[in-house]
Design goal:
Layout: E1 9-12, E2 32-37, E3 49-53, E4 57-61, E5 66-68
Antiparallel strand pairs: 1-2, 1-5, 2-3, 3-4
Length: 71
């Protein structure tokens, strides 16, 4: 599992199987955003991370649906 950091650019590359994934989030697949709160203090790879998605707002997403973009 990736370790994300604040300010990191990411892409939502698939729908998540996590119970926190809502059906409306399927429209986020393929979009990019920036990590605003990686929850590093929890140190739990299954924890949700806060992502600011361009044009959509800020959401807490499971880590299995996001991947880092090359910087």
């Amino acid at each position: 599992m990736n370790r994300f950091h604040k300010g990191q650019k990411i892409q939502i590359f698939k729908s998540s199987s996590d119970e926190s994934w809502e059906p409306f989030m399927d429209s986020f697949v393929g979009l990019s955003g920036v990590i605003t709160d990686p929850d590093t203090s929890i140190n739990d790879p299954d924890a949700l991370v806060e992502v600011s998605i361009e044009g959509k707002g800020t959401y807490r997403l499971p880590q299995d649906c996001i991947r880092p973009l090359d910087e």
